[in-house]
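Quick note —
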Amino acid sequence: MKKIAICLCIFSMLACPLFAMGSSDTAEVQEEKVAVNPTGFPIVNEPLTLTVFGIRDANQTNWEDMWVFKNYEEMTGIHMDFQEVPDQGRDENKALLFASNELPDILYRPVFTADEITRYGVDSGQLLPLNDLIDQYAPNLKKLLDENPDYRRAITSADGNIYCLPQIDVSEPGRMGFKSWINKDWLAALGLEAPTTPEEFIEVLRAFKTQDPNGNGQADEIPFALREINAVYTTLGGSWGLHWNLMNTINIVDGKVHFWLKDDVFKEYLMFLNQLYEEGLLWSDFYKRDLPMWRSILSGAQVGIFFMPYSDVFQAVEDQYTALIPIKGPYGDQFITDAKTGVDIGAFSLSATCKNPEAAIRWVDYFYSEEGSLFLRYGREGETFYYDETGNPQFVDSIQNDERGFMTALGELNCVPGGLIPCIITDMTCGAVASNLTKEVAHTLLPYTDKAIFPPTFTPEETEEMIFINQDLNKYRDESVSRFIVGEYSFDMWDEYCETLDKIGLGRLEEIYQTAYDRTMAE
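Predicted structure written out below.
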């Protein structure tokens, strides 16, 4: 602990100049607040610079060079001094930033978890409560929250304050996370129909493995692939009745919180995945989270069945794929597990030392309007996009067909690659990432989508205890599940696995969620 404290102090000293150096000149000039125009553009008539920290996705260019930010500065009169950091090591960078207590004005795409919002908002007071600012200076967001009380509840902390703004997705593709895809060209080549039961699922995968559906004479097909260990919980399990309607592996049944990690039906589901793995039907690297390899096998159309939110990774070959209707499981269950509420927290905050919070909240509020969403996600008509014959926006050819790849080109335009940016996403503007095929797949799967429940709010004490339990429980859960699937653990060890979950604190975690859920529902 002493070594850790020393390291934190050293890194904190290094982190301190990050914003102090970037904003020292403007801080001297802006001792008094710049007046904020109540409506319209520009937001300010006098020069105003605000410092910004955020997490930059690998597909995004430097934010100071990004088209949308440069053009928005011209519209608003506000210059953003961006000091973003890469996604790799983001948790460490955030911890060091707040440990230094030399905070920027704005935290844009900080990718805050609920725990971090509680820690830096409720506990330490380093984040600014936004309730009054929203009421006075954010009419677009206020309208959304007033019309949808669940949205407001989802972003309100246990002390009644809003410390972080969300990304709100009301589009059909946004109603679910992972969507099920199947290679229709492989089905056609082998004269097969899409599977509808676990037995048919296995038979189709066996055919994909042994009958060379891509016709290249090589046994290079991957019948079924999961992107990472977390996909075990969020994808095919819906056919075994494993609802995920609250949060990770948590279901609400008649008002009761239930973790299904010890359920016999979860064991049966893992036994099914183990069979797929033993027969070479499941991608052997599913637990390694090798995202570059994942992108490679999808973009090369090497996979028969998989789950992905959007087709952006495999857009060049997406015409080979279509929606796979969820198979009907052994107990008649047939639904998409990874349902979404449409509200993703962690997109935008202000520090308690923000020098002009009124201007900052007005700056972000535009993106919660249809017009602002279009600008943020597509740019400007005639310059970066046009409307097609159906009235939907489409990127110009230089972006859509950039030889470096669409996501690279899009990352020079905006922060859409990587997601979790403060805005509203509609069926009109979701196409910045959701291709027409993704929209069709989402529409097909929508009737099978589970009902998502907005998560409860937790007190600082509950949050602290959950963090303590989860850091051990999630690690043990993921390691054990991986080993059951690949055969390193015999299913004779299931009772031992369940007992260990209890020892780590699964039962106590369920109690905390139940208390928070009951309290939230009573408000």
